[in-house]
Design goal:
This protein is mostly helical. Helix content is 81%, strand content 0%. The protein is built from 9 helices and no strands. Helix 2 runs parallel beside helix 9 and helix 5 runs antiparallel to helix 6. The protein is rod-shaped, with a radius of gyration of 27 Å.
Length: 211
């Protein structure tokens, strides 16, 4: 590994930094964007049961607000439910915008790494090829083995850059898709809550397990 880094030259330093950043973001987002952590169905079921029994109070709403991103969205709506349907929906939408922003945290950085890493690799290859042609000017083309070795070293940075960029790009697209799915799920649950609170839908107890 050390020889590989040494052959790539100084440009390998920012490329490796990109790999560290990408790996850290991927691990963190995999942990953070779990459906059961963002929008667990158990919260909705418990909330519907409390609505059915009319057990909602300030402490319940505070616990709901501090539980999960979905809980924050639903709590924002319930806190403002007394002001009417439109105010409740606006409160949900406002809180949801903050939640979505948090769900998309670091994804821009991950996308930047996916774009920058191959460019850094290409830059390293160009610099390496410049060194190879400089050697040709000095020593000529008689030593083909040395020239081949120099070219192979020049291509190392591009290979490493692509090795980092490809999984970073795949994970970036995957996380974007995951965020979209979570947002749709939260929207559906929030809309159901609005309809239940304002009497347009009966409380659905089908998903609530009896104790």
């Amino acid at each position: 590994m050390y020889e590989l880094l040494k052959a790539g030259g100084l440009i390998m330093i920012p490329i490796l930094l990109c790999s560290v950043v990408a790996l850290a973001i991927i691990i963190e987002r995999f942990w953070t964007l779990r459906p059961q952590k963002v929008a667990p169905r158990s919260i909705v079921n418990d909330l519907m049961a409390r609505l059915k029994k009319k057990e909602l109070n300030g402490k319940t709403l505070k616990d709901l607000q501090q539980s999960t991103p979905l809980g924050r969205v639903l709590a924002a709506g319930l806190i403002n439910a007394k002001h009417g349907r439109e105010i409740m929906k606006e409160s949900i939408e406002e809180e949801a915008s903050h939640v979505v922003h948090e769900l998309e945290r670091f994804l821009t950085a991950l996308g930047s790494v996916a774009a920058i890493a191959p460019l850094l690799g290409l830059l390293g290859t160009v610099i390496g090829m410049i060194d190879v042609f400089a050697e040709i000017q000095i020593a000529g083309t008689g030593n083909t083995q040395a020239l081949a070795g120099g070219i192979s070293k020049a291509l190392i940075t591009t290979a490493v850059g692509l090795t980092i960029a490809i999984p970073a790009l795949v994970c970036h697209r995957y996380f974007q898709r995951r965020v979209d799915e979570l947002v749709v799920e939260m929207e559906q649950q929030a809309l159901k809550l609005v309809e239940v609170v304002h009497g347009d839908r009966d409380v659905d107890m089908s998903g609530v397990k009896s104790k």
